[in-house]
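Lecture 7 notes: from sequence to structure.
We start with the chain below.
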Amino acid sequence: MKRIIFLPAIAALLCGACSSAVPEDYTQYVDPYIGTGDHGHVFMGANVPFGFVQLGPTSIPQTWDWCSGYNYADTTVIGFGHTHLSGTGIGDLNDISLMPVVGEVTPGRGTAGDPSSGMWSRFSRADERCAPGYYATRLLRYGIGVELTASPRVGMSRYAFPASDDAGIVLDLENGQGWDRSTDCGITACSDRTVEGWRYSTGWADDQRVYFHAEFSKPFERIVFTGADTLSADGRSARGRKLYGRFGFRTEEAERITVKVGLSAVSAENARRNMQAECPGWDFEAVREAARRAWNGELSKIRIETADPAVRRIFYTALYHTMIAPSLFCDVNGDYYGSDHAIHRNADFTNYTTFSLWDTYRALHPLFTLIRQDRLPDIVNSMLSIYDQQSKLPIWALPGAETNTMPGYSAVPVISDAILKGIGGFDTERAYRTMKASTTYPLQDAVSYVLENEFIPDDKAANATSIAMEYAVGDWGVAQVAKKLGNTADYEEYLKRGKYYTHYFDKSINFIRPKLENGEWLTPYDPFESIHGVGHFCEGNGWQYTFFVPQHPEGLIALMGGDRPFTAKLDEFFTAEGDLGEEASMDISGLIGMYAHGNEPSHHIVYLYPYAGQQWKTAEKVRYIQREFYTGRPDGIIGNEDCGQMSAWHILSALGFYQVNPSNGVFVFGSPLFDRATLRLPGGRTFEIRAENDPAKNIYIQSVKLNGQPYENSYITYDDIMAGGTLTFVMGPRPNEAFGAKPENRPQTAI
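Predicted structure tokens for the same chain:
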């Protein structure tokens, strides 16, 4: 038998020789290994865009770099779970895990390095294949070939067994990922081909519930339960917190057994209905092909032209990573499990979950407004539904749970951006009410201090200053929506709140500085220091948060004394060297001076130069980041991928712009990476971005044209992009310092 290995670079070269009449297969440019090494934490396995099921391998380690269950540094596998997270800094999920085995094994995790413990196995990279919607490997301990594919709510696994009288498939309901711990599990064999049950767990997601309906292509001959607290008289049903069920078979050499697992957060019956609707048959290749087509349709929303296959591979892998979350979280009949731990049903929208909002409001959701307008109404309606369940918009939502992780009310800028851009598909007045209520919610982190004193005292709350800075970003968005809706009083109040960052600016040192309850500055104060969890700033330091005013860069420039002092401070930011301290967050990675590209608070800062008339400096920094921090290696993402945010930064930047203010639709120019890129817009329109004069080598913008006419601004508006047309950059090897330098050509907070 010949071994076939998926090599995106080779596939790309082969495609170039294909007839132009054949539709382009964008999945061939995706390399799922990118980001699986080091701190990327990305998901590896089979899924469809935004699907509920993420079916993939889970390794033995439970440490930070295995938050997704997989890391390129490791070749152990304890099972193939049907839910995973991608790019997060905390581990959870990995529900409903299957592990094919041969012979006598002890169900459980076992110990790495001890080949006789547990049921784990090693695999070889030479046997591993991965592509969007498909994963394959070979378990060396058992000689079993594994193939995985998925539909939105169903995972399909195909196992090729050796000849054995004691082959088995173990259903593991104990092992989650990271913090996740099972609290109650059940398995019932409904027939010799069908199994149903549930897994309840707690961890990062509190009181998470997953029900399953599983079908086997071949009847199992016996069931053995391990870890059961209760067992039915007929031995076909068991319940327990650490529950395993082994389903036994006799197999011939290379015999394939396929398992389908439908998921639901509502009931096993709904899981069965989901399977009937999405995956009624047993044609593995048809399901795999449907997944490939789904991915190809999504990836084709941006078409790029470049002579560098490595750059193409990095770009489309990034685009792939932006479509793993948010994830579908409702059944085919509209049922879903809410954060109030109750069952809800809707017919008006598709419910989503896995909102890493502190990360994704910055670039992922602005990217969605360009290429995923069809999903945005459902995403916003899902957030409004969460508000109805918990009296505030989501902070960091996992399936059926609010984790309250990270500062700010980061759903607010996402919704305000959608309203201001006229996305539609949801009740604007209702959305506005939820935004206001969330910004005054009494149980929200330290919001009472903002309402009473206009600042959060550093001696009253951990991460006080960064919480307040995040609040100001959301408040500015509320102000703009109030203005659009004609509510003058709210506009003035929230615009004032959006400028509360000024309370923390110490002009004597030109830094954002924590303030105490008595109104005095924190003393002593080291802007380099970062203390994870309980410090003055969340996953950052005084240097980084000094520039955290994406909603009003002009105001920050004025506080610093104008363009020259501001750009001098910004230059210093990218060269400053200092000790962050032993307690600094691991997320502060990808340092350029004090700029940390591996973590979100820095992401907009590289695009601040054009606000002071020095667009060319942004071009330099953007290109350096793309070259050094986005590569084609497994460690090719410099920090946690964070559910698409890290990749969205690269996608927008490669197109040539970035939305600094998360709620105003102004995309600031950087340095376009491709000769040509075409965005597919709603209504059949396209927006084409051309970069003339070898943009791969010439990074500086010399001049710009919009639809053939000279264009002097160092930004473009959302409305201009969505109208369709052509944006042409002329690039050069040296800066044109005059481009975008005039005040009237600079990006502005309000257009």
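Points to note: The first strand starts at residue 56 and ends at 58. The chain has 18 helices and 38 strands.
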